[in-house]
Structure formats: structure tokens, C-alpha cells
Design a protein that fits this description.
Layout lengths: L1 H63 L2 H14 L3 H28 L1 H7 L6 H26 L4 H27 L4 H29 L1 H4 L11 H41 L3 H31 L1 H10 L2 H28 L1 H8 L4 H33 L4 H21 L9 H24 L6 H30 L3 H26 L4 H4 L5 H7 L4
């Protein structure tokens, strides 16, 4: 039995590493896509792109947020009992359910594209919504197969299909956006062209995973299986019972973001009398800052994937002391990653925006103060992600839902009020985002302290990384400032200053975390190549 559990654990860590690598690759590709996209279609076009993509994200979250997870859980359970016919029936019902949902939402976007764009306060975005509609169907189909393979502990099809999606979005999307402007089709069609890249990626990703399933059919199907599967109604009810709470939890922030987008755009137009095009441009500037804000989260996701399942295992065994240590490890890793990212984005907000969006002067001038406001939210966002997972590991699945609803309400109210303040305007949006994440993180921390025996020492995990990050931020800003004062300010020197400043920041931070003892051996052993990293840094 011990040998079997060890093999399972190794299989899990390998799968988590595969997914973590895929997530990092797709996020990097996504950033590479969005940054030049803004330079190609401008802030107005990017505002239209963002409106369409946020509608799409909500529908995708509703249709696939919990169903693939429920599918993988049910398949894993049936597979462990040797019920191969049950596995096939579960997969068939899940695929049918997801395909029907995808078809409904695709038709909804096709038929209501103009109505949706109008309600979002950006009517010109209807072209992009229309272009994105078919993608929902194919993503739903793809998600059913991803859940199937994940239930068999095979993460490779999921990872490869994610990378295919991202590459198509990059190559096809940027290419079509550029061609549309070359042919004088306008930013509306250029934004729609960029969206087509997402649709093509979902089609090819779905095609890949379907072909993979057919080629490996014999690896998973057992024609000699004799078990009698449950009735379809029984399977469907259990499927939905598992999926609905997960979907609800996943959908809350997507729903809030969509409402928030409509509020921001309509308040800018109704309160200040801005034209739809100008409001779209301001919203696009905010989207550009959000692209950079979202990048650090990419590094937090593998932490929850690698550390948190180990927490669940120890909770199940009643080993609360070890569960506490693992919880502290997850929080400390979140602090080690989020704090330097936040300080770096704060002190170098303007130089970074100027480096990435050099051809769009308005994006830089409006966007960098927004990025500076969002920088502290990186910390709160990271904390809420890890604390959500810790609470779920202990079985408190309702608390993250409640905390996210509270944060979402704060965000909506804050943005409605603050965006209408003349001295703030679009700056009210990132302030609302910061307030939202802080509220969620605080509620989660209080819940952990109250509900969990041997709860982790949360403040203690942040002190040393905070000291290291302060020194790192000061060093990064000092190096950048010296280079600019010696060489003068222009595009090339700014790029040199940012790059050298970042390199200096990394060196300073690594030295500081080792000196202060902010990082320990147990903090890295659960990540890929953790033992090797610990040896290089002489961690104990």
C-alpha cells in the first residue's frame, strides 16, 4: 500500500509540473500577444477586444469551470474501482452535456452580439464578440476531453492543447489584426481579427485532443469490461452535484468583472460625457496595466497545484501539525513571489509601461499610474489564491465563495462611486480591484484563524520576504535611476535601464532571502527541481 501511495504521489507531482509548465508557457505567450496587440490596434481597439474577451471568459467559466473537474473526479473514482464501462458512460454523458452548453452559449453570442456590446457600453465591440462566439463550443468540447484525461492522471493532452491555443492566438491573432489595419478596415475589424486567433486556437486545440483520444483509445478502453454502469440520470445528477459548487466559486469573479466592465464604461460616458471611443480607449489603458498585473499569478498557480493536495492528504490522516507546515510553505512561497513582483511593478511602473507600449503614448501616460495602484493588489491576490486553496483543503468550501462574493460587492460599489470622482476617473477601477482582493484575503485569513486547528502563522511568513523585497525595490530603482542620469532618457536607454534594473533586482533579492532566512528547504522541495534549487542556494 505504501508503495502504491508513493507512486500515486509521484504521478501527481509529475502531472502538476506538466500543467504548471503549460500554464507558464501560455501566460508568457498571452503577454507576448497582448503587449504588441496594444501597439498594433491602440487603446481603443484593445478596449473593444477586452470587452469581448471578458464576455467570453464568463461564458467559458460557467460552462467549463466545474464540469471538467467533476468529470475527472468521477472518472478517477470509477477507474480506481475497475469500472471501465462506468468510465465510458460518465465520459459520454459529460461530453454531451458540455457540447450542448457550448452550443447554447455560442448561439447566444452570435444572436445577441450587438445587444451584449451595447449593454457593456461599447457597441463597436460587437464585431469582436461575433468573431469569438464559435470558440465557446470548441472549448467546451475540449474541456470534456481534458477532464477525461485528467481523471486518468494524464495531464499531457491538457497541457499541449493549452499551448496550441496560445500559439494560434499569438500568430493568427496578431497577423489578422495587423492585416486589417494595413487594409484600412478600422480598429473594430482589427480587434475582431485578433479575436479570430482565439477562435482558431480553440478549434485546433479541440482537434488535437480528439485525435489524441482516438489514437490512444486502446490505452483507456477495455472491451472485456463486464461491470454494469449506473443509470444515466444517476450519473448526470452526481455530475451536476459536484460541478455546480465549483462552477459557482469559479464564476463569481468573472461575473463581477463583467459587471464591473459595464459600470466603468457607462460611468465614464454618462458622468463625464466621454464618447464611446474615448471611454473605450481609457478602458483599454486599464486593460494594458492589468496584463502586467496578472503575470505574477502565473507563478502562484503551481504552488496551489503542488502544495495544497499534500495539505489535504495530511488533514485526512489527522496530521494537523504537518498540514500547518505545508500551509505555511504555500503562504511563504506566495510571499516570496508576490512581494518582489509587487515592489518591482510599483517602483518601475512608468519605465516598464514605456518599454512595452512605447508606440502608444497615451497607454503609457494613463496606464502607468493604474499599474502602480494595481501593484499592491498582486500581494492580496496571491494571498487569496493560496488561502482559498487551504480552506478548500480542510473542507471549508463555502468560505471562499462567501469571501469572493463580499469582495465582488466591494469592487462593484467602489468602482461605481470612485470612477465618477473627477480627480480619479479611470483610476477608480484599479482602486476597486485592490479593495476587492484585500477584502477577500482578510476574510480568508480570519476564517483560517477561527476554523483551522494548528492554523498557519500568516504574518510570520511575510516579514522576511517583505524586508528582502523592500531592499530589492530600492536597489532596482537606484540602478535604473543611475543609468538614466548618466546616459539620458530615450527609448533605448530606458530599455537598458529597465533590463539592468531587473537583473540587479533578481540578484539582490536572491541574496537577501538567503541572508534573512526568508526561504527554507521545505519551501522548494514541492516544486519541480526543488531539491536541486535547495542545494544551489545551500538551504537547510
Amino acid at each position: 500500500m505504501a508503495k502504491h501511495n508513493k507512486a500515486q504521489k509521484q504521478s501527481f507531482i509529475h502531472g502538476a509540473a506538466v500543467l504548471a509548465a503549460a500554464v507558464i508557457i501560455t501566460k508568457v505567450i498571452g503577454a507576448v500577444f497582448k503587449i504588441p496587440l496594444v501597439n498594433i490596434i491602440g487603446n481603443v481597439g484593445y478596449g473593444q477586444f477586452t470587452v469581448a474577451y471578458n464576455i467570453y471568459s464568463l461564458l467559458i467559466t460557467i460552462s467549463t469551470g466545474g464540469l471538467p473537474v467533476a468529470l475527472s473526479k468521477m472518472i478517477a473514482e470509477a477507474e480506481s474501482l475497475g469500472r471501465r464501462n462506468q468510465v465510458k458512460k460518465i465520459a459520454r454523458i459529460a461530453t454531451t452535456t458540455l457540447t450542448v452548453l457550448g452550443l447554447i452559449f455560442t448561439l447566444f453570442m452570435l444572436i445577441c452580439c450587438k445587444w451584449l456590446a451595447d449593454k457593456m457600453g461599447n457597441f463597436a465591440a460587437w464585431h469582436a464578440i461575433l468573431a469569438l462566439a464559435p470558440s465557446v463550443l470548441f472549448v467546451c468540447l475540449m474541456s470534456s476531453y481534458r477532464g477525461y484525461f485528467q481523471g486518468h492522471s494524464n495531464m499531457t493532452p491538457t497541457a499541449v492543447s493549452q499551448v496550441i491555443e496560445a500559439l494560434c492566438k499569438l500568430c493568427v491573432g496578431l497577423g489578422l489584426a495587423w492585416l486589417a489595419l494595413q487594409w484600412d478596415k478600422g480598429v473594430e475589424i482589427a480587434a475582431a481579427g485578433a479575436i479570430v486567433g482565439v477562435t482558431v486556437g480553440s478549434v485546433l486545440g479541440a482537434l488535437y485532443i480528439v485525435i489524441y483520444r482516438r489514437r490512444h483509445r486502446n490505452d483507456y478502453d477495455d472491451r472485456a469490461a463486464t461491470d454494469v454502469p449506473d443509470e444515466s440520470v444517476v450519473i448526470f445528477k452526481r455530475f451536476m452535484k459536484l460541478a455546480i459548487p465549483i462552477t459557482l466559486s469559479s464564476s463569481i469573479m468573472s461575473i463581477v468583472s463583467l459587471i464591473d466592465n459595464a459600470i466603468v464604461l457607462n460611468r465614464l460616458q454618462n458622468v463625464f460625457g466621454y464618447t464611446e471611443e474615448y471611454a473605450s480607449g481609457l478602458f483599454g489603458n486599464y486593460g494594458s496595466a492589468q496584463t502586467l498585473f496578472n503575470l505574477p499569478v502565473t507563478l502562484i498557480t503551481p504552488i496551489t497545484a503542488s502544495v495544497v493536495p499534500n495539505i489535504s492528504e495530511n488533514v485526512a490522516r489527522g496530521n494537523h501539525l504537518q498540514a500547518r507546515k505545508l500551509s505555511e510553505t504555500g503562504l511563504r512561497l506566495a510571499a516570496l513571489i508576490s512581494l518582489p513582483c509587487a515592489f518591482g511593478l510599483f517602483v518601475l511602473a512608468h519605465p516598464i509601461m514605456d518599454l512595452l507600449y512605447h508606440s502608444q503614448a497615451e497607454v503609457v501616460s494613463v496606464g502607468w499610474p493604474l499599474l502602480r495602484i494595481l501593484a499592491p493588489a498582486v500581494i492580496a491576490n496571491s494571498v487569496l489564491l493560496v488561502t482559498n486553496s487551504i480552506l478548500q483543503s480542510y473542507g471549508f468550501v463555502k468560505i471562499p465563495i462567501i469571501s469572493m462574493i463580499c469582495g465582488g460587492v466591494v469592487k462593484i460599489i467602489a468602482n461605481y462611486v470612485l470612477v465618477a470622482v473627477p480627480s480619479l476617473g479611470i483610476k477608480g477601477a484599479p482602486i476597486g480591484t485592490l479593495a476587492c482582493f484585500v477584502v477577500i484575503a482578510v476574510i480568508n485569513i480570519v476564517a483560517i484563524k477561527i476554523k483551522i486547528p494548528e492554523s498557519p502563522s500568516i504574518p510570520g511568513t511575510f516579514v522576511r520576504p517583505l524586508i528582502s523585497s523592500v531592499v530589492m525595490g530600492a536597489g532596482a530603482w537606484g540602478v535604473y535611476t543611475v543609468i538614466i542620469r548618466l546616459m539620458g532618457y530615450n527609448g533605448l536607454n530606458n530599455a537598458l535601464g529597465v533590463l539592468v534594473g531587473i537583473v540587479a533586482a533578481v540578484i539582490i533579492y536572491v541574496v537577501m532571502v538567503v541572508i534573512t532566512g526568508a526561504i527554507r528547504k521545505e519551501d522548494v522541495i514541492y516544486v519541480p527541481k526543488g531539491e536541486k534549487i535547495a542545494k544551489i542556494l545551500h538551504l537547510r
